[in-house]
Amino acid sequence: GPAPAAAHPGPVVAAAGRLARGKRFDLLIEAFREVAARHPDWRLRIYGGGAERARLAELVERLGLRDAVRLMGPCTPIEPEFARASIVASASDAESFGMTLVEAMRCGVPVVSTDCPLGPAEIVEDGATGRLVPPGDSGALAAALLELIEDEPLRRSMAAAARERSRAYDPAPIALRYERLFEDLEASRAARSRQRRAARVRSAALAVPRRLLAPLGRSGRPTSRGTPEQGGGR
Question: Which residues are in the Glycosyl transferase family domain (predicted)?
Fold first, then answer.
């Protein structure tokens, strides 16, 4: 199950994923510069490994965020780390589904995400379970983070709503729905198979030549046309 939300989550924004260009951790780091300037006690922790690590580390140094931003490396499972955070952020240009967001919400953590194609808008209800911002806009990302950081009652209400919303993605009910779907498909396939067999039997019966049935008398036994009883004899 999901990690229980921390009673008093720390002043932490967490993010997780492969350190690849499309995940736009660079955008998130740039957005966090504004957060760190206004709230120097807050931290950004990025979990994951990948080809962009060196470039991101260099960006952190260049922006003077060494104390504020930490590249934590890969972490599995991620839920305990999310549960200790106050916000989970995603700056991706595209998401296949957005499992990171679901994992965060299951931990009772509100989400700030780019409204990129496919995943986030299906998962995050903007203003209720988190915030959605335009992709590629570090200013909008910073503003959304600051909104949640500076409004604790809003953050708490979003956290509760996020946990409730995440139930739609719980593995057990989803597995049960799939199981029922497969059972329905199997029953439908079996019914079609029975119908096909019955149709083949009917077709075979109709294909029996009538001449084979004609010589049968009322008794069901073959009769000979040449017998005296039928007037066929001489």
Answer: 10-165
